[in-house]
Amino acid sequence: MMDFQKGMIWCGVFFSALSVRAQSIQFGGDVDFFLQTGPQSVETAPGSRQLPGRIFDARINRFILNWASLQATLKKESLQTQIEIAGGEALDGLTPNLAGPGGDPGRFITQATLTYAPSGWRGASLSAGKFFTPLGFETVKAKDNWQYSRSLGFNYAIPFWHQGVTLGVPLWPERLKMNLSVVNGWDGRIAADNNQHFSAILSVNATPNTDFTVNLNVMTGPESAADSVRDVQELNVSYRLNEDWSFAVDGMTGTQTNAVADDRARWSSLAFYARLLVAETWALSARLEEFDDSDQGFALSGGLGGAGLKQKITAATLASRWDLGEGLETRLELRQDRSDSDAFFRDAQGEKASTQASATWALLHRF
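Structure (tokenized):
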């Protein structure tokens, strides 16, 4: 709690200082509040129960302030500065609140970037700072996703954020762009890094037209004290069929050398999405996914740190979103996860189970 209070104090000081130049600064923010329930969960501490396989929305039977952020963007002719300060339960998913050398003193600064793009560079840009990962169809913030909960692939197959530099180059103006990033590693906490090497991310974004988007991301770099290499390839495609129907697919594969007893670990994820705009203020969406961690159990139950439970999990999610106006929306979501092992989930009595169900209500506001 003290860390959160300190973060909010610094937030107030920061935005008060910026107010003197408010004419040239754009401000915004968002709030994410949810309540979730389900017949199954795991007790992590007295009075606290969580759903396995969930990171940003794990707790049940509690009202949760999941995310509250303020953003400021300063734009000049060739320079853009963007800073976001946030608090809430979701921060523990991004950066665990650890004491000592494993902690992150900048955990409340969720994004802070400087982007330099002079007119003579013909659309190219150079960015430096802390930023959310470009990998994945989904994002860290629920407000930007079709469903409230994140997929297993987003939670376990890819990183969430980075610290580093990015060179952006337009290969075909407004149609094809390439970004090359050099970052500290999987997630950007310097204190938690276990080697002195950088990782590289190549991102290619293609938009043949306003209804069709293809994103290819490749990340590689040493991710252990023994410098074993972790590679991730991710491809997502989205298509808007008409004003009502939209579809997307997201596939990911990952490997790490010498991950388990000098053997390679592999994991993969495939998710399909569909969204229907029923009315101007009402949308329905569905997600069907499979996460394959049957090789070594390294990604999901192993936490990308060692061997774990070998399994495949399929998950089906149905979501409904209502736009209440003025940036306010509410969501309802039903989700069912099923593993081919009975050792990952728990039933209502705390015994081993192969399935897990949840229902979620959320209230989100952007301003």
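Helices lie at 2-18, 91-94, 152-156. The first strand starts at residue 25 and ends at 37.
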